């Protein structure tokens, strides 16, 4: 797989500008890994582990849990927008993975995530459920899976309505 050298430059410059950016380090590691640059990829993995507080004390754990949660939420946000999605099944899989990432983010962050930020994530999750509904409405088993997605989407929208942001109301 060919990776444009500008991708390396972009991620490296983000890491240099913002050394605590988990996603930039993770993405740079992924790019190195796809290019079979194991030592560089390993360095990025080590940096991500350090930033996430792996092998660190409890004092640092709350801060790293929130960082990890935000990292996962950022990945969840962009995950369904891959340019190489060529079918509804691929998109459905990506949407389900994005929901899984959001749920992990909510789990990692727990009570540390500010309410407004959490409601923003709920809104994005609800829109994913709506997109899933559009994909599965013509499937044979749609009556069962649509109800689940519909109910989850409504529950998340209800949580979002408690937001102070006008865009969520």
Q: Report the biggest beta sheet as strand number plus sense, adding barrel if it closes.
A: none
Number of helices: 7
What percent of the residues sit in helical stretches (DSSP H or I)? over 70%
Say how many strands there are. Answer: 0
Say what oligomer this is: single chain
Strand content: under 5%
Rg is: 18 Å
- Give the mean pLDDT: 81
Please write the string of helix (H) and strand (E) elements: HHHHHHH
Organism: Ameca splendens
Protein name: Tetratricopeptide repeat protein
Give a written overview of the molecule.
The protein is about 75% helix and about 0% strand. The protein is built from 7 helices and no strands.
Question: Which helices and strands occur, and which strands form pairs?
Answer:
Layout: H1 5-17, H2 22-34, H3 38-51, H4 58-78, H5 88-109, H6 115-136, H7 142-160
Helix pairs in contact: 1-2, 2-3, 4-5, 5-6, 6-7
Brief summary:
InterPro entries: TPR-like_helical_dom_sf, TTC22. This is Tetratricopeptide repeat protein. Helix content is 73%, strand content 0%.
Summary tags:
7 helices, about 75% helix, mainly alpha, about 170 residues, TPR-like_helical_dom_sf, single chain, globular, TTC22
């Amino acid at each position: 797989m060919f990776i444009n050298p500008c991708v390396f430059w972009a991620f490296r410059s983000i890491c240099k500008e913002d050394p605590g950016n988990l996603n930039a380090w993770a993405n740079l590691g992924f790019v190195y890994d796809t290019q079979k640059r194991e030592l560089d990829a390993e360095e990025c993995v080590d940096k991500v582990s350090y930033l996430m507080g792996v092998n660190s004390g409890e004092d640092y754990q709350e801060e790293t849990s929130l960082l990890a949660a935000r990292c996962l939420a950022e990945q969840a946000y962009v995950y369904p927008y891959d340019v190489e999605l060529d079918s509804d099944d691929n998109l459905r899989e990506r949407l389900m993975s994005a929901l899984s990432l959001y749920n992990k983010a909510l789990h990692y962050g727990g009570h540390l995530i500010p309410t407004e930020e959490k409601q923003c994530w709920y809104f994005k999750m609800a829109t994913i459920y709506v997109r899933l509904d559009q994909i599965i409405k013509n499937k044979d088993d749609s009556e069962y899976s649509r109800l689940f997605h519909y109910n989850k989407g409504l529950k998340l929208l209800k949580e979002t309505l408690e937001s102070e942001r006008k865009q969520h109301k």
